[in-house]
Amino acid sequence: MNLSNIAKHLLYLAKNEYGPGNSVTTTDEIFTAERLFEVLKSFKNSYFNELYTYDTLEFNDEYDEVTDEEESDDKIDDYSENEDSDIRNCFTLEEMENIIEWVDQHPNVGIASISHRFRKVKYMYYIARAIEKEAIHDDDLELYAIQKARELDWDTFKASKSFINDFKRENGISSRRYNKIITRTKSNRKICSLHDAQNWIENKRNLISKYPFYQILNSDHCSFQQEYIPSRTLSFTGERTTEVAVKKKYNTTHSYTVQPVTSADGHLLDKFLLILQEKENTFGKNVQKKFIVPPNIVVKASKSGKSSDEKHHAFLNEVLRPLVGKKFLLFLDSWKTQADLTKFRAVFPNQDSQLLIFPEGSTGYIQPQDLSLFRSWRFIHEKIEHYVHINQNQVKIDQ
After folding, report:
1. 381 and 249 in one domain?
2. I want to staple 215 with a disulfide (CB 3.0 to 4.6 A). Which of 31, 123, 180, 211 is the partner?
3. Is 11 part of a structural domain of the chain?
């Protein structure tokens, strides 16, 4: 078969159905096209060229955009304990809550859109694993099937035992002994939608307009693993436990943190805070002897490699204060320590210096560093790790 002919006819069908479409191609559309191209290539290389259609109760939903490779992950019968731990290691609780809240608000969205908004989400099963599950049995499947059949006016349909067994087999579902019980709790966090975030910006427009672009600042924390490893590895399908060796397990879950300052006119300011992980919240004598600290970096030590009240004060006093005058507007996220105006006023008493706190849950929509700078940094970090691995360079990225 000629894939070019297939693509031409597909384009013809799309134009007839939806019009010529002269708009600029979006990132989501490019992502979907690339996935579709991979499907076409796999179809060309397969031994079977015939397509069959048949009536089924399995209708298109938001999970339909996953590829064959992704679907195969969900068809593994054996429960793998690392799948849940993978999610816990790759996502913070706040990130998981934000992802689930956003997916709940957009029930028909596909994996392409989710991956575009949340770069860490590579597979749809990440979402399924993060959602709390109630116990489900064959009776529940029978009920769901009958309800769907009634919606379609299939009044004679009966969800027989053989139908249920076929459905489970085709979808990789099996009866498993559960090994963890969780208590469902309702989050008190207010859900912030894109519309809410945009309204907040509009409400602050008058204040923002009083400052030139170079005086409008944003700062946030960006954390990196000291030893970067992907969340997945190639292994044998069906194995109960999948293990992976690292140099130091501690370095895969703990990180170092940088906190830069950027301005609305697109500049990265000259100083930033670097928080390194040290056991005693301070650098040892031997480390201090070998320390070479560039003049544009303020270096602090922390057991976790994360920020704290003390580190936030160092950021305000040692990083931000030398960079700004009496008048500026600083945007920070809703982390409790940063949101405390008294801490800010202790360093910047002048009323022309203002602090604005992004609404909780809104930073993924409107915080500049989240939307641009940090994505680039993490992408570059992963590319460097990949280069070192492929070329077998004896380099430690964290040193």
Report:
1. yes
2. 211
3. no
Does 178 reside within a domain?
Answer: no
Q: Report yes or no on 282 lying in a domain.
A: yes
How many Cα neighbours within 13 Å face the side chain of 143? 5
Which structural domain, as residue segments, surrounds residue 266?
A: 194-391
Mean pLDDT of 101-118: 72
Structural domain includes residue 123: no
Strands (E), the chain: 216-219, 222-225, 255-259, 261-263, 272-277, 297-302, 328-332, 353-357
What strands lie across the sheet with 261-263, from one edge to the other? 261-263, 216-219, 328-332, 353-357
Query: Strands 255-259, 297-302: parallel, antiparallel or unpaired by DSSP?
Result: unpaired
**343 touches 366 (CB < 8 A):** no
Which segment of 227-241, 245-259, 347-361 scores lowest on mean pLDDT? Answer: 227-241
pLDDT band at 383 (very low <50, low <70, confident <90, very high): confident
Task: Give the mean pLDDT of 34-62.
Answer: 53
- Contact assessment for residue 221 and residue 384, using Cβ atoms and an 8 Å cutoff: no
Residues 155 and 273 in one domain: no
Residue 279: exposed, middle, or buried by beta-carbon count in 10 A (0-12, 13-18, 19+)?
exposed
Cross-strand bridge partners of residue 329: 216, 354
pLDDT at position 174 is 79
